[in-house]
Amino acid sequence: MTEAVQADLEAIYQFLGCRTPEAWIKSAMENLPILLIDHAQCEKKAASTAMSMMYRYVDKPELLTKMSKLAREELVHFDQVLKIMKQRNIEYGHLSAARYAGGLHQHIRKQDPGMLIDKLIIGAFVEARSCERFAALLPVLDDELAAFYRSLLKSEARHFRDYLKLADLYTDESLVDRVQYFREIENLLIESDDTEFRFHSGVLQ
């Protein structure tokens, strides 16, 4: 792992405030097909979220540029996950959504500019947690998957930074309090008991 990626991870660890529990990592190794299927869905959803923001906020050129690049990268990652799944004879199908995204999105303010800022902060948390989980899985994955997840660290860390930079750009107030508000919600979702395993799930009961 390069020094730059390690520095990115340190910033992400500080931003998130908690690490993935060991129990989740154990569940990931016991549910590898589900991990890959849900990972693919997460990449597709991330592209969809970026496109949705591009349609809604057409008057924000910086956002359009960042989200356009992000959407393209996430779809490339989606294709890469599908390729790995095909090699392992894992069929791609529908999975119910984790409670994670919904648990964060239900706290979004209803009016702009607050709604946009909250969406961007949540985007930063989703990308940061994805990056943190890729890193947490590296020591326990087989060589092929470990190499693939290691290759995603740089782009996911950049997406995290891009979301935060956009949030800072479009607000006149400090982000500290709002980031802390969502940090507490996100940490609870990650550390509390969950009923089903997903890429962003909590700890299985």
TrEMBL record:
SUPFAM superfamilies: Ferritin-like. GO terms for biological process: tRNA modification. Keywords: Oxidoreductase. InterPro entries: Ferritin-like (IPR012347), Ferritin-like_SF (IPR009078), tRNA-Hydrxlase_MiaE (IPR010386). GO terms for molecular function: tRNA 2-(methylsulfanyl)-N(6)-isopentenyladenosine(37) hydroxylase activity. Its EC number is 1.-.-.-. The keyword Oxidoreductase applies. Pfam families: MiaE. This is Hydroxylase for synthesis of 2-methylthio-cis-ribozeatin in tRNA. It comes from Gynuella sunshinyii YC6258.
